[in-house]
Predict the 3D structure of the following.
Amino acid sequence: MPAFDSRAPRVKALLAGLAGAVLAITAAGAEPVGVTVRNESVNATCAETDNVTLKLVSDQVRKFNISVRHPAYLGMLMMDNTAPDWETCDMSGDPVVPADPKALQPAAATPPAGTPPAATPAAATTAKRVTIFETPDMWLTGFVFPSFWRAATVPVRIGGEVTQGLHMIQLWMRVDGKAEEVLVVYPPDGYWRARPMSPAHLRDTAYGSSFLVGPVEQAERPIVRLKELDFAPQTRTFTLHFAAGGKARMQVVKAASDEVRLEVQLDGTPPGTFAALRSMYVTEGNADVARVTWRSLGSGKGGAGGIMGEAPVLTFADAQNVAMLWAGRLVPSRHNTSAPDFIFDGFAGR
């Protein structure tokens, strides 16, 4: 047995005090900011149409958090419905941009000198999957689709390695011996999706709503134009370089069975809409988001003392001076039944 060290309690107390001081300094330096939430949602009958749009607007925000949590009813869920619902949907007018045929071809070894050239293969008609980073507990998988609604022109950088032509990237993590996909990004339009690790009684859970981080603009639908996307595996941080200027650092600070939490820092981005939630609502029993709850920024310490509000998502009016926004469901939906709720909070200035 190790000898008892009478200094240990004092050292622990000192470290705790230092940690508290650092937190106090951090809190003091991050001034809480109230944001505007604009509801641009519209009615729809197609369950595969993103008719819910909630935009977060501020000229002052430099930091905020995104928490993704299981719906309140998940513990009672015995069956999950994750199948797409194309009833009453017409996607014939959606743009289709074919992928570069070369990007769909598997990498081939260099043939020996003097080998006759082979016939050029026809363009692949299925998605191509590539692993762009891998460790035993975390990996990034990229996909090239035969077509997408926007061209895949955003380079993805990990250290000195750059991968071109990707339509989608999945972040996989191994937690407590279980490996699951927890985050997805579509570089061509800046859409992200996230989900917590699955609970013990469900093998997998569904994705549902998408979110945007950065200068949101309209290009047939809300998008964020990325100039480049970087990933730092050591800190689990994505850096989003925007075509409109500036960048954002989005760190995965938690990936667990109860929550995925992302911390976002904006740097030099244009004022205005800095994030958005995109989802679908047909009826309360057929929706990925059915209700919203928000808390205003109060006048007390750290923004305490604000008031709460709640409303159905389609009748929710714009809200001002918002410190927290929750968007989710209180009753099970037949569409993406296990899909998570979203919380945006921690809005702070410089």
